[in-house]
Amino acid sequence: MAIAPTLRELQAAFSxxxxxxxxxxxxxxxxxxxxxxxxxxxxxxxxVFNTFTDALKTSYPSVLRLIGSDCFDGLAAxxxxxxxxxxxxxxxxxxxxxxxxxxTAETAMLPYLPDVARLEWLRQEVYLAPDAKPxxxxxxxxxxxxxxAKSMIELHPSIRLLNSQxxxxxxxxFCQDSAPQQLHLDDGGQTALAWRSEHQIAILAxxxxxxxxxxxxxxxxxxxxxxxxxxxxxxxxxxxxxxQLLLQxxxxxxxxxxxxxxx
Length: 263
Prior knowledge:
This protein is 48% helix and 11% strand. The model has no long low-confidence stretch (mean pLDDT 86). Helix 3 packs antiparallel against helix 6, helix 6 crosses helix 8 and helix 9 packs antiparallel against helix 10. Strand 3 and strand 4 form a beta hairpin. It is mostly helical. Strands 2-3-4 form a three-stranded antiparallel beta sheet. A two-stranded antiparallel sheet has the order 1-5. The protein is built from eleven helices and five strands, in the order αααααααββαββαααβ. It has two domains: 110 residues, no CATH class; 153 residues.
């Protein structure tokens, strides 16, 4: 007589059977009620795969539009079988999908597809990021040039950046348009700046030097260091217009000089 497995062992075997299409020795412990164990497990397998596929389609609508539903469903099935969920929140599922697309033969003819997926996942992160109120910046006009250079600028926690060798923002916008215009894939790379304003997600293509400047600020560099890094990227970097962009959209949430009490 077989020794009955523990509840944990049964749960582990059942979970594994959902992704391997094998009953994992569950037959003796499943009351079939006229339905074979493999067929009974298939019911749950279909539910799991359908749920995860819908979650991927929700997170990656542009990828879905670019490759079509049949191709997406096939890729999703393989991804789900290979990449288990590690969170009870479906919004967390699909983080590795862009890298999966980058190594998949079926998408090799669409080399920009992984970056489109990366941009869509950034939108997910932007949407779920904490909120923060814009900082009152009037006191900055009272600072000397040296004090301003040493200032630390804290940006909104929803800000995300993506640097692509493809016109990823244009491709993404092309997918949002119900009547899309002609898309030029040879227009060169783009850097995407994404953020959340109230409940709206904004995506903007910015110059490489702006990307470098924002990256430095996100890494807790002083304003002076961020400016130098941006100028090293492109001598035509315009600090005034870049700060205006950040302030206009409420993306500066704190500014202070290290060692000095905030005003």
